[in-house]
């Protein structure tokens, strides 16, 4: 109960160090100690591990040091100390921004990945693929994908629980919607075809794909004038216009990052579809350049009882 105001502890990568933040408060930094460094340190026992510390003049925070050979050892000790102190009442997260840096394998740690792709390059693509392959399934990916190359269909990139991503090329947007296996996604597509939205609806309705999906929002950056045609797809049902449909919203999986928005944007729509395999309902909404899709726990019969 004493930690009610603390909902997450965040390890976040910067270029020269990893910071540690409790809620919004910076508490320490962790960085590599070069062999040639003559920095004067003191030692502390942290969860049974002896770690070098000093007070950082640059950041006005305690700084812990590691040698490349014992990097995971240091992060493990600090993480275990926080875990022992705060328990499992808070979320522990690692905010990664440099795919060339391996993520320490720590218990009770969710992974967030923030990245913006630059120019094409085989080396960078290989680094990303290796990063996704070696990392656990991520809690959230926030990426600006401007490259023409496709990510492998087997990549854990598509298995992340939540995505908040901007995707430039239409073939990459199509690949994402085809292979995504997570629970929530907010996406910005520069190009997309109405028929691909219809294909998405049909695959969900048949039970072929997207079994975990809870919420999807896609904003089209161009060519959205025919998006409304999605609502004429086979299987899309209509609630009487004189009645008030239920409002769909679910807790944001990324609420530790987006503190001001605990829940997904509400979906209020008279259109819905029913999944053939279990009779569950999804609300479907098209407003201007925005496509929204929210999956209910309720069956069609239960859903219609909520209509006012």
From TrEMBL:
Origin: domain of life: Eukaryota
Protein name: F-box associated domain-containing protein
Source organism of this protein record: Caenorhabditis nigoni
Gene field: Cnig_chr_III.g9161
